[in-house]
Amino acid sequence: MEEKFNDILDKDEKIISVFKPVKRRYWRAGLAPFAIPLFWPHLIILLVITFFTLPFFYAKAYYNIYYAYTNKRLIVRKGIFGNNFASLEYKDITATSVKVGFLDKGCETGTLEFSSPSVHAGVPLRFNYISNPYENMKLIKEQIDSAIKK
Questions:
Q1: For the whole model, what pTM was predicted?
Q2: 7: in domain
Q3: What is the extent of the structural domain holding 63?
Q4: Distance CA 67, CA 74 (A)
Q5: Domain CATH for 83
Q6: How far is CA 68 from CA 8, 11, 49, 58, in A?
Q7: In this predicted model, what pLDDT tens digit does every residue of 103-150 receive, in sequence order?
Q8: DSSP code per residue over 71-117
Q9: Can you tell me the distance from the alpha carbon of 115 to that of 121, in angstroms, rounded to the nearest whole number?
Q10: What's the pLDDT tens digit per position in 14-42?
Q11: CA-based angle 84:18:117, to the nearest 5?
């Protein structure tokens, strides 16, 4: 999976680890709005319009999503028709958090968030639906701390 990031890595940059969202949790997130009774009157219209297209786009998006951390930064790769990359340098990270929601508990996943005021108007960089979120956050924080000390 490391080769998915070759296009944007610096010469002296090495990937430490690559993550992929847990497929079961990813699909539950896409189906959650249909379980809310508020959307049921519109469900027939939505199903007619999107019955064939929505699963295709959602599967394509899952195929292209990867998260990685290197010796210098965090990287998110995603997109439906192309590959879009977002990254955050360790020195710019101001806060980290782990979020485990109701749907995450059943799949043993969580979301890792990394905040910086300089990234996308304060919207945190997220590693969504990652297995073992607490352990992975510890490993990433160790890398952040060692990179900042250098």
A1: 0.82
A2: no
A3: 13-149
A4: 8
A5: 2.30.29.30
A6: 12, 16, 35, 21
A7: 899 889 999 999 988 766 678 899 999 999 999 999 999 999 998 887
A8: SSEEEEEE-SSS-EEEEEEGGG--EEEEE--HHHHHHTEEEEEEE-T
A9: 10
A10: 999 999 999 988 887 776 655 555 555 66
A11: 55
